[in-house]
Amino acid sequence: MASQTTTRSLALIMATILLVTGCSNNKTEETKAEHSFGYVLDDYLINTNVTTGIGFSSNIHQLVGRIYPGAFVNGPEGQRIPNTDLVEARALPGAPMRVEYQITDKAVYSDGQPVTCDSFLLAQVAATSRPLFDSYNPLMDQIDTINCQPGNKTATVVFKGNFGPRWRYLFSGGTLLPAHAIAAKANMSLADLNTALHNRDLPRLQQVAQVWNSGFDLGKFDPALQVSSGPFLVKSVAPDGAVTLVRNDKYYGEPAVLDKLIVYPKGTDLHKLADAGNLHIAEANSKTDTNWIDRNDNKNPYIVKANPGVLAEHLILASAGVLADQADRQAFAACVDQAAVAQASAKESGVEVQPVALRTIRPGDSIATHLKEISDQHLGVNIDQAKKLTGKTIRIGYFAPDKRKMAMVAAIKASCEPAGITILDVSNEAASVSNLPFSYQDEDGVDQATDGKADAVLQALDPQFSFPYVANPASDIEVARREENLSWDYTRTIPLAVQPRVLVLNKSVEGIAENTDLFGVGWNMDRWKE
């Protein structure tokens, strides 16, 4: 199952890239005939299931945050904004920690069916049932059970051991998929799905997993499955991958201001889209992508903002294969020169960014200055430690083409060569965490491992949703220090550098609240007004 999913994901990625690069000119010609509000991403639009490996690594958060809103909305400063239109959540007294989610009676999907606790249960079981489900949602590992009666509006989450203090980061935007629609596609009743999920009946869940893994692919858009619980819903998908969103008239919260917008994938020609009058907001890969904008022209309608973002880019490491052993992961980290990687990223993007050696907090967190002894220890290179991997080859994947990430991998290759470690850029074969081999226990408790085409994947991470072994948010210096040291014991990722972000904003658009986390500037797209 895992190898099949990996192959499917790669084929989907390559098909998407070819469509974008091959059809972008045609799409621009089409859009000249009709004015539309255009939002361009610096990521490919492949599926709308953010917790599949491919959805996570393609950062589809930017599209789905207002299609499948979460229990809390991520604000631009990292704040957790309760989404009381959807659900009211409260921690219950006693141990182990429990949190009750009471879904509002008015919360429905765009097909009129109610949002129920089954979507919460499905999200947790899918996230913790790899490789049957091609999932990546690590914080779900902190949950022991979810109490949910079929079709009910109440979900009670019970946590393992001392976990639970990070509960506000669970069930974020994009994770609460329509369980009733998935059950229907799998030829099951909602009650049967609920039972199979509670029992972790993997044979019974085979068809459910197939729908969950691939049913949300935009290349074969299924409107009966991709029903929305947010202010926007997917109306259609163009041949070049552009996604048309329209206002969800059954949304139970404040309606979206725009009745329609088109979201374009990476590879879209910004200049041509602007000439057609349909470029309003864009995330660009580098400042070079905005050179067509004449900032000295008084009639220029665009503002360009190029700054370091709030997140850091990491290498997410495999838990099987050449990096299965903790000491080997630490040896690999020892040959990575974060400063050189940051310089490579800055040169390609045109945005100065700083190297990073902390995982559990965002780079700009004020606590970071108090953890300098930890970051200093892990910045730079220790060739002697890295020589534990002499003679080994480490494969790094990412979504390509991407000149900036290619340069970052080249910098890693240069700093690891003195330790006798070969770094291969395998972005033509592997792009997502689905391509990483990982270890797991099967239903009989037997250790197993999957194959994969990469040993590391380069992408941005938000510590709020990562690192399941971290029990507590970094609320004070001592907690942050303890959790950061723990993260270096595990070395599940290698932090590299702050992620550069380049925004193009049309001055005519109101309601923009700039944001550079995973959900991007589109985190409040339902408030945009032209």
From TrEMBL:
GO biological process, one term: peptide transport
InterPro entries: SBP_5, SBP_5_dom
Name assigned to this protein: ABC transporter, substrate-binding protein, family 5
Domain of life of the source: Bacteria
GO molecular function annotations of the record: peptide transmembrane transporter activity
Gene3D superfamilies: Dipeptide-binding Protein, Domain 1, Dipeptide-binding Protein, Domain 3, Periplasmic binding protein-like II
Taxon lineage: Bacteria, Bacillati, Actinomycetota, Actinomycetes, Mycobacteriales
PANTHER family in the cross-refs: MONOACYL PHOSPHATIDYLINOSITOL TETRAMANNOSIDE-BINDING PROTEIN LPQW-RELATED, PERIPLASMIC BINDING COMPONENT OF ABC TRANSPORTER
Pfam hit, one: SBP_bac_5
Residue span, Solute-binding protein family domain: 100-421
